[in-house]
Amino acid sequence: MASKIPVTVLTGFLGAGKTTLLNRILSEHHGQRIAVIENEFGEVGIDQALVINADEEIFEMNNGCICCTVRGDLIRILGQLLKRRDKFDRILVETTGMADPGPVAQTFFMDEDMKAQFALDGLVTVVDAKHLLLHLDDSDEAQKQVAFADVILLNKCDLVSPDELDAVEQRVRRINAVAKLIRTTHAAAPINTVLDVGGFDLSRAIEVNPDFLEPEYPFEWAGLYKLDGAAELVAGACGHDHGHDHHHHHVHDEHHLKLALLPVPASGEEALKSAADKGIRAFANLAEDRAAGSTIEPSMTPWRLDLHGAHAHFPVRIAAPGHYVLLSEHAPEEFHLTLKSADGKTLRPVLAKYFEEGHSHDEAVTSVGIRCEGQVDSSLFSGWISAVLSTQGNDIFRSKGILNVAGRDKRYVFQGVHMVMDGRDDAPWGDAPRNNTLVFIGKNLDRAKLNEGFRACLRQPAA
Amino acid sequence: MRPLAPVWQATLDDYPTALAVSRDGALIAAGTASGTLSVFDAASGALLHTLDAHAGGVLALAFGRQQLASAGQDGHARLWDARSGAAIAALPGGSGWVSHLQWTPDGKRLATAAGKTATLWNEQGSVLQKWSASAGINGLAFNAVGGLLAATAGAEVLLWRAADGGLDRTLKWVSTLINAHWSPDGKVLAAGSIDKSVHFWRAGAWLDSKMGGYQKKPQALAWSADSKFLATTGEDAIIVWPFAGKGPEGSKPMQLLHHLRAPEVLAAHPKKPLLLSGSPDKTLVLWDLKAGEAPQGFATLSTAISALAFHPTLPLAFATDADGQLAAYWTDQ
Q: Which of A5, A124, A153, B137 is the most exposed place for a label (fewest CB within 10 A)?
């Protein structure tokens, strides 16, 4: 069977640089016949490409459920292109600035004819570094365009300061942790970074960069302290009469606080990060109860502090002066958590970091990554993933993953757009470490629930 | 079942996208993806003329009385003198491709659709009415007396009155509709949906009825000349719903199974209860709907069948394939 024609979708707000990128692709990609479908009036300055202008047209199924919508204009135009004797090597679709990428992507998975003839290669989103933050605050479409992307061109980098650029990049990363992010001016991205990206190619699902996948931390805060000797930890129960302006409210036990103290060899970001990773394992251990006045010390056993009473004091004993990381289940300000030196002075952490709270329901669009070892029970997994996608498919824009399925020597890979999911066996594991990687990008994602749900699909090791 | 005997064959320059036979049966016209329009003598296959009709490709063809109307990707419909090939008028569609064409049954007025706009023209190419829909128009059909033009747009069918341009009524379904077909007697309007169902409304009551269970979207629909059968694609078999007697509500459809791959094009005979079906498996099959589910004849071309047509008076069937072959066959032995 003839190979499918690759389709690249360019999204981005008006003025972000889509047309500039399009013209670059067309002028640099010699020797290929490219058809361009434009939904916005752009100035394509290349003669040899066939440019078709069409209004974006949503085909709806079942009362406007977004998961079932496809793009009628693409179906009609691509259907006609197939009939031409001069075949095309590649299709570029330039959407309007306000387009929802969902129906565009679904067109290539839900419509049988499109699915048979075309392969969606990737969604490339061009964003204007200067105005992106504004657009993300104002517009669902901007969030979706970033969320759906396989490649994000952070364009017009010359118009913003390095600090601003970092802020924009961080925001983009929070939404879409796995897209390839390229900083550009005048949309000058190397062509091979925007074409043939294999964003929907199952055999390339493996290329998900695991560095972007933050594990779920069971604590909200970590502080790195330099301790010269014995110290004292002071904390109080969190009451609602404090008049604090909590930016979020928890339902938690207000009289107990779980924490752990871990030694680190040096100061610095690296040390904090490694302690946090070690802390995940420490927090998995059964905590030891500590009443006020009893001693705590560095240990892989977390301490569960009893905070009945106004302020409880806990002596901290260390074996030697040095750097230590205190990991706290909740943000320290919620429990007036402080560390004091032997002479009563308040110690300030050299470095501190807040971690994404596991149970938060974030209205905004985010990525949830899951990485863990273990063997997946395939029937439990297929039951779980279809339940997740059928109940939350409206909010989950994209999903992908590589799984270590029990009893199989090959990687199982899957990817989905809203409720449509595709999966199959891929390359053998060989000597590679077998683990599971999943990514969900969407809104209202419950990180902890997704984690729990997936972990429940793992086979329990034989006793 | 027997092979259909070939009568004549011609080769077109590109993928045939539209095929139409004149009302008197004298001419057959074929349009292609490269934009050419060729007119042949239907009985002999003699080429009368080939026109460069639409840059980018022909999308639809329909014969009026003396005129042949074509529509294409150049944003225009065009009126031609069918016999001489002389251009009569270029009809601007409004925006984008002109995808649909439909003459009134008397052949005096022509409706076109481009994007969300439909236009009604007279035979000389003057505008009589202009309508706009809230979504792109996916199908056009006049009822028997030519008074009502049905246009599917989004999940709705808009019924416009040709006389005064008014909106007679709106028929609604919840999923996008992809075509529109009035029964020849004007009593039933049918439309396929992308949600893999076929809908119909009986004129007068206008209640929506749904026929589901398709594997794919029913892209092609064809009414038999006596309005007693509606043939539909979307399955390996052609599903034929009976509209005589109790109608589809009380009876099982016929399933015409012969193609190796699901047929994608259909044509109904304008006078007899005959049906042609064409499939990507390169075959076309002749069916007699009165005779039941047994195929009556077949023929094979070199690639997927792209368009089909019957001759109104002679026992002739026409078919094109994706490579540009146009073939005529005897339907009687």
A: A5
Residue A213 has pLDDT above 90, yes or no: no
Residue of B nearest to A112 (CA): B216
Say whether B263 sits in a helix, a strand or coil: coil
Residues 6+ apart with CB under 8 A from B32: B12, B13, B14, B15, B16, B17, B38, B57, B58, B324
- Residues A305-330 have a mean pLDDT of 89
| CATH architecture of the domain with range A365-455 | 2-Layer Sandwich (3.30)
Domain spans of chain B? Answer: 2-330
pLDDT in tens, B170-223: 999 989 999 999 999 999 999 999 999 999 999 999 999 999 989 999 999 999
Choose from B98, B194, B195, B233 for mutation: most chain A CBs within 10 A: B194
Distance from CA of A85 to the nearest CA of B (A): 6
pLDDT of residue A427: 87
**Phi and psi for A279 in degrees, rounded to 5?**
-60, -30
User: What is the distance between the alpha carbons of residues B201 and B171, in angstroms, rounded to a whole number?
Assistant: 8
Q: Which residues of A touch B96 (CB under 8 A)?
A: 53-55
To the nearest whole Å, the CA of B176 is away from the closest chain A CA by: 5
Cα–Cα distance for residue pair B164/B147, rounded to 1 Å:
10
Q: Which CATH superfamily is domain B2-330 in?
A: YVTN repeat-like/Quinoprotein amine dehydrogenase (2.130.10.10)
Task: Give the model's pLDDT for residue A46.
Answer: 64
Q: What is the pLDDT of residue B202?
A: 95
**How many Å apart are CA B110 and CA A445, to the nearest integer?**
54
pLDDT in tens, A42-65: 666 666 678 888 888 888 887 667
Contacts of B95 in chain A (CB under 8 A): 55
Q: How far is B13 from chain A (nearest CA, A)?
A: 9
Q: What is the mean pLDDT of residues A433-452?
A: 89
pLDDT in tens, B1-17: 899 999 999 999 999 99
CB-based contacts of A360: which residues, under 8 Å, 6+ apart?
Answer: A248, A447
Q: What is the total residue count of chain B?
A: 333
Which of the residues A60, A86, A88 would you substitute to probe the B interface, choosing the one with the greatest number of B C-beta atoms within 10 Å? A60
Q: Interhelix angle for A72-81 vs A101-110, to 10°?
A: 50
Residues of A in contact with B97 (CB under 8 A): 54, 76
Measured from the Cβ of residue A383, the count of other Cβ atoms closer than 10 Å reads 12
Q: What's the pLDDT band for A252 if we cut at 50, 70, 90?
A: low
Q: Which of A316, A308, A311, A303 is nearest to A258 (CA)?
A: A303
Are A72 and B155 inside 8 Å of each other by CB?
no
**What is the DSSP-derived secondary structure letter of residue A178?**
S
Q: What is the pLDDT of residues A282-308, one digit of tens each?
A: 887 888 999 989 999 999 999 999 888
The rounded distance, in Å, linking the Cα atoms of B257 and B297 is: 13
- Per-residue confidence at A238, pLDDT binned at 50, 70, 90? low
Q: With CB atoms and an 8 Å threshold, state whether A83 touches B57.
A: yes
**Closest residue of A to B195, CA-based?**
A61
Looking at the complex, report in whole angstroms how far the Cα of residue A99 sits from the nearest Cα belonging to chain B: 16
CATH number of A5-201: 3.40.50.300
Q: How many CB atoms lie within 10 A of CB B314?
A: 16
**What is the domain partition of chain A in residue ranges?**
5-201, 225-351, 365-455
Predicted pLDDT at A360: 44
DSSP H or E stretch at residue A147 = helix A140-148
Distance from CA of B195 to the nearest CA of A (A): 6
Nearest to B33 among A52, A85, A111 (CB): A85
Residue of B33, B115, B216 with shortest CB distance to A55: B115
CB B101 within 8 A of CB B60: yes
